[in-house]
Model the fold of this input.
Amino acid sequence: MQSPKITDVSWGQMKVEGCGTFKDAKLWPGGARGWDWRETGTDHQPGVQPEDVKELLDKGASTIVLSKGMQGVLQIKPETLQMLKEKGIETHVGLTENAVDIYNKLVQEQKRVGGLFHSTC
Done:
């Protein structure tokens, strides 16, 4: 199953092909949904937690793209990157627009890619 392509990103919203428009989004092979930070208590600091990424792995992603927001305000907990490394998961991190470019390139290459995207700061 292919991961959905991100068709547009701007401050405060991103459009995901066949899935809708989101402020923050979780994407995986075959689907996407809004990313509600309250589910895991995520905040800009300490940032993306292992629990945020687990759903993507459970849904079959073997490559992960993590967005740090448009201005890099969203951090990523070192434990998150360590967990992905220990599982042998190829991981990419960048500002949102760069992360979207990387993600869409991986989709085009038919990788089983998942991602967490923050469309503001």
Q: What stands out?
A: The two ends are 31 Å apart (CA to CA).
